[in-house]
Amino acid sequence: MVNPQKEHGYVGIANEIWDEVIRRNFTKRQKDILMFIWRLSYGCNRKVAHIPKQKDFELCGIRQGHIKAELEHLIDSKVILFDKEQKNYQFNKKYDEWDLSPVSQWDQERFRELLHLNLSQAKKSKKTVRKSEEKVTETGSYEGVNSGKKNYQNSNFSEDENLPKQEVCKNQKLTEKGSLENKNLLKREVGLTEKGSLTLPKRLRGKALRLSKKGLKIKRLKKK
């Protein structure tokens, strides 16, 4: 499947020249010759097209019997310049020098209206494309926050400032809640340890006293 791109090469011709070619009374054969010369000159980053034989113009669909007459007409009309020695053909972009009448149906005002219409349509299409792209980016970022599919710890976000507002609020609440719970737990543990060190249960206190009394009796008996 073909996929032409400007990166692979293109013929750079000003719109002003296209307007004049449309406006002037060229025949189909003459336009084919012009496009053939453009491709071999401008399309090759050159000002001239080197075409060694007139027969080569058959490649653009002109029969050999008509090539000479059409070339002479374009040369006499100063549309193309021809170097016989080098066999080089050059397009004359100074269209004010052309000796060609405009087409009888040409209407300059209507042509300008069509240009304005198409340019305005192009601007509208660009705006719609931009809006759709902005919507896609916005929905994509917030979907990741709401659904939980996107993990910001493994993403390119390094600081909380880069996170969406909803995510920052959630993180702040969670951290505050966790810190409060930790403080409460620490207070409970401290209270338990202090209480355990100061006061022992009654059973443990009774056993300790009995053991101490027995130990004192045994010591006294041994001394006797």
Descriptive notes:
With 224 residues, the protein is mostly helical. The protein folds into three domains: 8-97, Winged helix-like DNA-binding domain superfamily/Winged helix DNA-binding domain (Arc Repressor Mutant, subunit A), CATH 1.10.10.10; 107-150; 166-218. It is 59% helix and 5% strand. The chain is built from six helices and three strands; from the N terminus they run ααβαββααα. The protein has helices at residues 15-23, 28-41, 64-76, 108-147, 165-198, 202-223; strands at residues 48-50, 80-83, 88-91. The protein has a three-stranded antiparallel sheet. The longest helix has 40 residues, at 108-147.
Write the layout of secondary structure elements.
Elements: H1 15-23, H2 28-41, E1 48-50, H3 64-76, E2 80-83, E3 88-91, H4 108-147, H5 165-198, H6 202-223
Antiparallel strand pairs: 1-3, 2-3
Q: What's the CATH architecture name of the largest domain?
A: Orthogonal Bundle
Which fold does the CATH topology of the largest domain refer to?
Arc Repressor Mutant, subunit A
Query: What's the end-to-end separation, in Å?
Result: 117 Å
CATH homologous superfamily identity of the largest domain: Winged helix-like DNA-binding domain superfamily/Winged helix DNA-binding domain
Spatial order of strands in the largest sheet = 1-3-2
Helix count, DSSP H or I runs of 4 or more residues: 6
Which percent range fits the helix content?
55-70%
Structural class: mainly alpha
Q: In CATH, what is the class of the largest domain? A: Mainly Alpha
Percent of residues in beta strands: under 5%
Biggest beta sheet summary? 3 strands, antiparallel
What pattern of helices and strands is seen along the backbone? HHEHEEHHH
Tally of DSSP β-strands: 3
Anisotropy-based shape: rod-shaped
Overall pLDDT metric: 79
Q: Segments where pLDDT lies below 50 for 5+ residues?
A: 142-164
Rg = 46 Å
The structural domain count equals 3
